[in-house]
Amino acid sequence: MDIAVFGGSFDPPHIGHEEIVNLVLSNINVEKIFIVPTFLNPFKSTFHLAPLERFELLQTLFKNNKKVEVLDFEIRQNEKTPTFKTITYLKNCYKIDNIYLVIGADNLKNIHLWYNFLELRELVQFVVITRDSILLENDYIKPTYLELDIDVSSTSLRENMNFDLIPQNLKEKVQKLWKKE
Q1: CA distance 123 to 120
Q2: Is the per-residue pLDDT at 163 higher than 60?
Q3: How far apart are alpha carbons 53 and 3 in whole angstroms?
Q4: Which residues are registered as beta bridge partners of 35?
Q5: Using an 8 Å Cβ cutoff, are 42 and 13 in contact?
Q6: What CATH number does residue 139 fall under?
Q7: What is the arithmetic mean of pLDDT over 172-179?
């Protein structure tokens, strides 16, 4: 079985995340893509939406796509969980031939600092999502690059909340959660 793993904070999920999943499914031959929201990103100290809220939003976003499974593994850890631990968990649960790890180009700069990076690099094939046709070269991995033509990040979205960047089937839920904050 060939799978892709796309992890992140998804705080909040936006149209860029949806498009990344579509890009992976149309360019990489996988039977399933696991969306893995973090409890708390290992490189961050806070989150805006609670982990279970983000998990439920992602389930709603991808509920009609049979090739997508939203995995609550990292949320159930109730702590920062390194990608290596998630990949190990998946390898123990499924008979996997190839794992494609989907990351944003912004992660390349510090990827060598990821927990057990050298071992992780042996377990996965990296798929790097780029913007503006910028291919960031690095000395650590030789990835497959996929170009995202949507310029949105959760950080900029939170700073200037633009609900037009939230997928249609999440808009009402996200607006309610945002007002609650």
Answers
A1: 5
A2: yes
A3: 25
A4: 6, 70
A5: no
A6: 3.40.50.620
A7: 82
